[in-house]
Amino acid sequence: MSTTLKVFVVSPDTHSERRFDAHTTIGQLKEKLELITGIPVHNQTITLLNSESDTEAIASLGDDSKALGFYGVRDFQVLKIADTNPSISFTGQLTDVSQVDKFDLTPEEYAQRQDTVLAYKQRNKIGRFAPPGESQLSEAPHQVDISIGSRCQVESSEAGLNKRGTVRFFGKTKFAKGEGVWVGIEYDEPMGKNDGSIQGERYFTCRPNYGVFVRPDKVQIGDFPVEEIDLDDEEM
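Structure tokens predicted for CAP-Gly domain-containing protein (236 residues):
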């Protein structure tokens, strides 16, 4: 019988699905979690939740000598990692944009730039820039190669982050009428925004936070296997 547990790891700056052996001690777990969350071992407090929406913890994993299995951890439960001293590890600052200087452009300055969505649409005659009589929904030619069930990778602004998944939907939607086609993707990890439905309309079905809708030009179709990070006890 497998002793591998599949759980969600949630911290102020991270959210991912991970696999740990049930015999892993809490002390060993904290060492692994430091690599995932960036929170030093001695600053971690770990609580167990049934789901992310729960406000009451099932248990506090406070004994470093005990194994995960001792606390009755089950698949798809949530390990919530808190930082007892965020001023040292800067926890939460990656998601706090209140102190970030904003870069503003006037409409005239924006129109002059050649690296914007507006310039892209002008060059490719998309949307309102399409010639009279042509479809307002025409976009990049490679979109025709997107088919349901295809493996794909979604463009990410975060260096080194691969958002991989499977195409579950391709077509027009009710949430963005007249704005072309969208690609519905089921991610391999919970990096999405929905469960395949938006505004009460279901386009496909997947687990919560695994689904996302993106523009076709953000999707790369290919042989993208599921990436698994195996942090075993021999890694330092």
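The helical segments are 26-37, 86-89, 107-112, 117-124.
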